[in-house]
From TrEMBL:
SUPFAM superfamilies in the cross-refs: P-loop containing nucleoside triphosphate hydrolases
Signal sequence, renumbered to the chain: none
Alphabetical list of InterPro entries matching this protein: AAA+_ATPase (IPR003593), ABC_transporter-like_ATP-bd (IPR003439), ABC_transporter-like_CS (IPR017871), ABC_transporter_ATP-binding (IPR050763), P-loop_NTPase (IPR027417)
Domain ABC transporter stretches: 5-234
CDD domains: ABC_DR_subfamily_A
Taxonomy of the source species: Bacteria, Pseudomonadati, Pseudomonadota, Alphaproteobacteria, Rhodobacterales
Name recorded for this polypeptide: ABC transporter ATP-binding protein
SMART domains (UniProt xref): AAA
Protein species of origin: Roseivivax marinus
Keyword Nucleotidyltransferase: no
Domain of life: Bacteria
Molecular function per GO: ATP binding; ATP hydrolysis activity
Keyword annotations from UniProtKB, A to Z: ATP-binding, Nucleotide-binding, Transport
Keyword Nucleotide-binding in record: yes
Length: 312
């Protein structure tokens, strides 16, 4: 695979002296979906702005498609579509003109059929002649996405794309992201909705206080840091965890009718077999058994909490 975005030791000190990025290195492959998670103020938007050439890094190097984002700004920028966090549209412009204008800015030849397709996929076609200031907040977000896609970017940045949007738009977005990925587009998104990262990302990066704390395949991360619960429903209720089972991490729930065993999914031995043997020896009869995997959210909260950073 080829690296589409290469970030090496990126640093950003704002004018007031605040160090928002403290040497971030990261390589993002073509066709990959990377979700950047982090508490408020962690530096996610700053990093995206540096990659898109909106903010100038004060140290390190960033390349998009092999082009340096500072020295080869135009080439690098033309490969990038950005859906910003804040709505920055011309209020009196019509939807159609807004999107067509953006395509032109990036030097792409006029292609009305292509723009029509984008607007239809975003349910904006009926609104093509409406002025921006006549649209709802959700519709404006859709226009931001249409603009970002108008010039066929190879890398798409979505900065908290679904903050405050309705379920329908969130679903549309996920569908569009899946289509773009299938077509080979590289996608980087920041989000506060961890279930969103869990649903669509290939890799997860966690930023905290200007540093990249972790970047890992989502599935591997969930296996490595994940815990599972085995919920054992009992034939007869127990008053306490029997002493024969003291060696296991067990708790009693639902008025003593459910025994919960929490175990590490990354461990070599889960201990389930031994637990079952000990239960049989102790004459405890099971009625039903279920498992529950903890979510990326549980993992993220633990991770950010463990390193003493701001609350998620
Ligand atoms: N133009 C600026 N001048 C000075 N400081 C800034 C500027 N822009 C951002 N910062 C600071 O840099 C830090 C990182 O901000 P950034 O917007 O990158 O965080 P974020 O991770 O995107 O946060 P959020 O999740 O709240 O959007 C914050 O402490 C912010 O106050």
């Amino acid at each position: 695979m080829t690296a589409m975005v290469e970030i090496s030791d990126a640093r950003k000190v704002y004018d007031g002296g605040f160090e928002a990025l403290k040497g971030v290195s990261l390589s993002i492959e073509k066709g990959e979906i990377l979700a950047l998670l982090g508490p408020n103020g962690a530096g996610k938007t700053t990093l995206i702005s540096c990659i898109c050439g909106i903010a100038v890094p004060t140290g390190g190097q960033i390349r998009v498609g092999g082009h340096d984002v500072v020295r080869d700004f135009r080439k690098a920028r033309s490969l990038v579509g950005l859906v910003p966090q804040e709505v920055n549209l011309e209020p009196f412009e019509k939807v159609w003109n807004t999107v067509r204008f953006t395509r032109g800015v990036f030097g792409r030849p006029r292609d009305d059929a292509h723009l029509e397709d984008i607007l239809r996929r975003l349910s904006l076609w009926e609104k093509r002649d409406a002025k921006i200031n006549e649209l709802s907040g959700g519709m404006k977000r859709r226009v931001l996405i249409a603009k970002a896609l108008s010039h066929d970017p190879e890398v798409l940045f979505l900065d908290e794309p679904t903050a405050g949007v309705d379920v329908e738009l969130r679903r549309d977005m996920w569908r569009i992201v899946a289509d773009l990925k299938a077509a080979g587009t590289t996608i980087i998104l920041t989000t506060h909705y961890i279930e969103e990262a869990e649903a669509i990302a290939d890799r997860i990066g966690v930023i905290s206080r200007g540093s990249l704390m972790l970047v890992e395949e989502k599935d591997a991360l969930m296996t490595r840091l994940g815990r599972k619960e085995l919920r054992i429903e009992l034939q007869e209720r127990l008053d306490a965890v029997p002493p024969q089972l003291a060696e296991f991490e067990l708790s009693l729930e639902e008025d003593g009718r459910v025994l919960v065993y929490s175990y590490d999914t990354g461990a070599e031995r889960t201990g389930i077999g031994r637990l079952m043997t000990r239960m049989t020896e102790a004459d405890i009869v099971l009625r039903d058994v279920r498992t529950r995997q903890n979510s990326l959210e549980d993992i993220f909260v633990d991770l950010v909490h463990d390193t003493g950073t701001d609350a998620a």
